[in-house]
Amino acid sequence: MKLMLSLALVLLSSSAFAQQRAPATPLITHNPYFSIWSTTDNLTDSNTTHWTGAPQPISGLVRIDGKAYRFMGRDPRDLPAMEQVARSITPTHTFYEFKAAGIDLHFTFFTPTILSDLDILSRPVTYLTWTAQSTDGASHDVSVLLDVDPIIAVNDASEQVVYTRNQTATENVLSVGSRDQNVLNRSGDNLRIDWGYFHLAIPKDEQSTTAIASHARHDFVTTGQLPTADDMDMPMRADRNGAHLDAVLAFGKVAGEPVSRHLLVSYTQNYAIQYMQRNLRPYWQRNNEPVSQMLDDAERQYTSLEARGTTLDKELTADLTKAGSEHYAAIAILAYRQAMAAHGLVADVDGSPYLFAKENFSNGDIATVDVLYPSAPFFLFFNPKLLEAQISPVLKYAALPNRWKFPFAPHDLGQYPLANGQEYGGGEKTEENQMPVEESGNLLILVDAVSRAEGNTALAERYWPQLTKWAQYLKANGLDPENQLTTDDFAGHVAHNSNLSIKAIDGLAAYANLAHLLNKESVAREYQATAKTYASKWITMAKEGDHYKLAFNSPNTWSQKYNLVWDDLLGYNLFPKSVRDSEIAYYQTKINQYGLPLDSRADYTKLDWELWTATLADTPAAFNAIVDPIYKWTNETPTRVPLTDWYDTKTGKQVGFQARSVVGGVFIKALADKSLTEKWRAKASSQQ
Fold first, then answer.
1. Which tens digits make up the pLDDT trace of 29-46?
2. Helix axes of 369-382 and 384-398: crossing angle, nearest 10 degrees
3. Ranges for the Glutaminase A central domain (predicted)?
């Protein structure tokens, strides 16, 4: 497959793609349960893991002229590793290049994360492709082994698993899953799935052999062959003695012409989310499509999807560079697949899409409103329908009179994957540790943003009573918030929070705009006037010399006013430009080696908010002054985990959180470019 080799060479050499070193490298990224990463510079320096860090080893070996080498995973440790000479991450691909014994081996992971096409986006398939070519003028006999540990299908190694061997019209398939298949049996944070099945699918037209055996790697290393018999003693524990899924792809004699082979990996589950006690199917399976058909469709579309992914990679990278800089593009590319993979895309009972975010390594909550808010730029830029799919189930829940009885918006819908009602703080029972101003402002702003993006007020009209109640709450309580939590709840309660006040003011402006769109002009005038009055008061209340305070009653403080970004992006124009300019100028004096602290209380920061704050800058120099240290951090952080959004700006170490959807917030700079936004939204519109 010469196209794949030439593409890899181009992308590996492109400075726009050349992250010096990612904190962790995305390999297979679909949803919170099917998300596999490499956490070392070289793919052979560690075994692959789930985003939580739990072991989910997928190993790769190659035999060149009878001698075996590793190209993925550190096991078997007595086997030499190929020399890794390059690695590159694009929005939909991860490329590696290895050399050994006169062979150049390109290895690619391709996940078609195409947000404009929900059918493809929801399909749980990643393609693995190898391209081998001789580099010394000689001909070499080459074959590769892919080995999958059964722990990929369970929460921990003590669980019992069963195996199957099947075939579809186009593929031979090896599968593994838990014996018990307790569907949607648990919720929480640091968990892996233990229902459904992992599939290793090898196209029938590839020259291959397969096995379900515990000693396949040993046999391949010593003989070049796989065991002739499968392990049939089932069920068995998914530990070191359990059988692995193995496939060998034969390249034959490899000379100067590149030779390519590929296979597919997938994880399927009949039900992915429980919403209000109803079990919902993955979106791709909304019409009861069989797994075999899904895998066949994925294989038949391999070449066309590869072309679409390649085009997306090149086009998006160029656009991100244009919108910000090469460093900005590199950060956004690292965030791209992760932002989507922290969600489960399912179908409601009528087939419409629902998208549920998981609050990874925070508390495992599902559909957390102050997680939907920071990730929103990602979806507003590519496909606003997906943001509507996130806020719709929250709005529907909030409209249940016998469930949500408070005058402010809810925080969450439960713990992933069970979206049966708020569990955070006081839940549905008390106002303790709620986020009333935070979540009410968030939902008002998001509903306004979606309505504008889609040119459709149906959502606002349907939930107007709830939006009105929340606007009234903000009018009464938003200008000078009482002692309460914000989305930055890890920092504790803050009374008179000036940045939270901005959110409330913009929330009132959002409600005024929605009223205008719905021809409720008297309401629109009232709330627009209130928002303007509050903004004017805010300037006086927050002002402290050359900047604005963290809290109205806290002298000698400062904070990132990231919520200001919507005042410009959504055209509320409540705050004079001088507020943004003075804040940006002040921030320049506070930047540390790896970024801008969140506020004056600590050295830590939030990645998403840094980019929102940087987007307030009106010059490339001021924008890059905030972004360049972040780029430096991604290449130097000592914490090797999927992109964290909470880290120390002096040491670069992770403070908490990882693999969260909120990194989608870095796309706010691209969203601020109206022509680019229109261009990418048009791609989604053409698919719907």
1. 999 999 999 999 999 999
2. 150
3. 325-669
